[in-house]
């Protein structure tokens, strides 16, 4: 979320899904973490559809 690489809503949903996934690991029989799956799918679709090729600038070469 701090780097702002993905949409903010998707990053928040990913964090919430991770917390729910941890809680489900502690409580047996609670079901599958749907929020985490939705967040990962959302971020994957966003990556496939976004055109971010020209936004990244290469670092200058290191001097030895």
Q: How would you describe this structure to a colleague?
A:
The chain is mostly helical and 64 residues long. The chain has a domain at 14-49. The chain contains two helices and no strands. It has helices spanning 8-26, 34-49.
Topology:
Elements: H1 8-26, H2 34-49
Q: Output mean pLDDT.
A: 76
The major β-sheet equals: none
Number of H/I helices:
2
Oligomer: single chain
Q: How would you spell out the order of helices and strands?
A: HH
Helicity level: 40-55%
Strand content: under 5%
Annotation, overall tally of beta strands: 0
Write down the overall geometry.
elongated
Q: Compute the separation of the termini in Å.
A: 34 Å
Structural class: mainly alpha
What are the segments in which pLDDT stays under 50 over at least 5 consecutive residues?
none
Rg from C-alpha positions?
17 Å
What are the defining features of this structure?
0% strand, mainly alpha, 64 residues, 2 helices
Put the structure in a nutshell.
The protein has 64 residues and is an all-alpha fold. It has two helices and no strands. The protein has a domain at 14-49.
């Amino acid at each position: 979320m701090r780097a702002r690489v993905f949409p903010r809503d998707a990053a928040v949903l990913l964090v919430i899904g991770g917390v729910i996934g941890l809680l489900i690991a502690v409580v047996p029989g609670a079901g599958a973490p749907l929020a985490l799956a939705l967040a990962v799918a959302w971020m994957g679709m966003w990556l496939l559809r976004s055109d971010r090729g020209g936004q990244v600038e290469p670092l200058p070469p290191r001097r030895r």
